[in-house]
Amino acid sequence: MAAGTHSIQNICSALALTLAALLLTGCVSSQLVPPEMESRIARDIAFESLKAEPEKLKGRMVVVGGKVLGAKRLKAGTQIEVLQLPLDGSDIPRLNLIASKGRFLALQTDFLDPATIPAGTLISMIAEVVGVKTIPLDEVDYQYPLLKVSTLKIWGEPSSLRYHYRPPIWAPYPYGPYGPMWWDPWY
Predict the structure, then answer these.
(1) Cβ atoms of 41 and 62 closer than 8 Å
(2) Which of 44, 145, 164, 180 has its CA at 20 to 30 Å from residue 107's CA atom?
(3) pLDDT-derived band at 33, boundaries 50, 70, 90
(4) CB burial readout 47-64, b (16+ within 10 A) else e
(5) What's the DSSP call for residue 96?
(6) For residue 25, what pLDDT band results from cuts at 50, 70 and 90?
(7) 130-152 burial, b for 16+ CB within 10 Å, e for fewer?
(8) How many Å apart are CA 68 and CA 83, to the nearest integer?
(9) Considering only CA atoms, which of 47, 48, 81, 79 is closest in space to residue 62?
């Protein structure tokens, strides 16, 4: 084989890999933010910054999510207390409580019955930073970043968000010794 043949094969392989990478990155997109609104979202704001300086970030639109800790009706709307969780590429909260960077309060001004988002529900939202609200948490006063909800997405039960693992065909017991749930990452 000539030396020129190898370089053409290398170029074709590199182009194929680049094309595959571009196609794969296009497959993961937000299930929350419409494309026309993406430019208004401040995705560069980390939750740590939001928690440290909510007054400085007033008026900015952010995407946040997590696990509902509680919700209650107020005169101005429904206040949701959320344990922040990191979001995946589709803006779905990852159920990894250790990765949480704190709590925040979200105010839904449209009617929202607190019974529809019980504690443990996973949510994501597009929200405007309003400021900070200090309320008691156990024996301390906790400063919550306060957000005004623009778009709220309530995800299904955590079990409906799980990623199923299929063991390799060569596995002697494809469902494990205890049945299908043995392979289920939520058990």
Answers:
(1) yes
(2) 44
(3) confident
(4) bebbbeebeebeebbbbb
(5) -
(6) very low
(7) bebeeeeeeeeeebbbbbbbbeb
(8) 6
(9) 47
